Amino acid sequence: MNDGATNLPRLIKIATLLCGILAGSLVYFTFEPKVDVAQRQLDDDESMLRSDEVMFSAMPGLRLKRAQLASRYAGLLTENPEAVFLRELSGLARLRGVSIVSASLSTEFPATGRTSRTLFQRTAMQLELHGEYRSLLSAISDLSRGTVVVDVGLPAIRRDGTALLATIPLEIGEPAQDDGKQP
Amino acid sequence: MIRANLLPRPKEHITFFGLSLNGERLREALLGLLVVLFVALLGIGIELIRLQRLQGAASDAERFLSAQARERAEAKSLALDVARYQEYSREAQAMRDSGARAAVAIARIGNRTPAHVWLDSIAPTHQGYGLTGQSKSIDSLGIAVLSLGRALPGERAALVSTEHHEGDTLRFTASITNTDPNPTPGTSSL
């Protein structure tokens, strides 16, 4: 008979507990997105600060590396590379004991077939050298080791009397001036 | 002398808009409501403090980042410069090695040619090399073709034609083909 009245205080306590949990959850879920955004922002900033720290610590090394590479790059910049190449070729031919039969700008472009994507502006050339087998191989090997950057293609060789005649396609390269990306 | 009224008190009732409510239960309910409010306010306080601390730390970090913006831009430009110079350097180095590669390609063919066989011409083709030459005998020619074809994986030598030249000497035409399914023109590994 009296159960309803006896249980009422207990019901009020349970209701208070449930309402407390509900209120706490409501507060938590209302603030959580804002807290989450702020936490993510802080994490991003902190990771950026850490990466900055690493980057700044590498800067002295990078400066040194840039100086080294810049001086190497400066070595690639030759005024009139074709003329420089021909001058060096003459010395090379003497050194290796071969004779230059002809050197002409090639009409077939690209001469070496390797110019699909390049940082260098290339001038195609065809070279004919005459000499002994060993001398010719040494000369071909040395063609790309001069001051000027040269890309040597696969040569054609044929017997010519007692010696050999090598027809060598090559490309003289100089850093492209119009790509707008030079360092 | 202490006097106490130990008789059960009559239940206190509060009438609210004509509704009679038990006073003790009402107090309990109000206390419960206060507890709920306290919990809610405590939660709000804690969350506000958390939020404020996080936002403060984030704004400090951002100030720091802004102060380093110039240095960061300088580092970025430095890294880009180095990367660009490195690209030039790599490509120049590849070009500088090209002469040696070409000489090695010819030398490999020369070294693979056995005795009693000599080559008159070696000409690069789209997929390898075309060869012409002479051989003292058909045996030597067979050995030469086998030798040229076995020297490198991915390369195959084939006899294209042969004919008698002078005496027992044979004139022949052969080819060395790169069997790589994606060959780059003019870049045979020979």
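Residues 183-190 of chain B have pLDDT under 50 and may be disordered.
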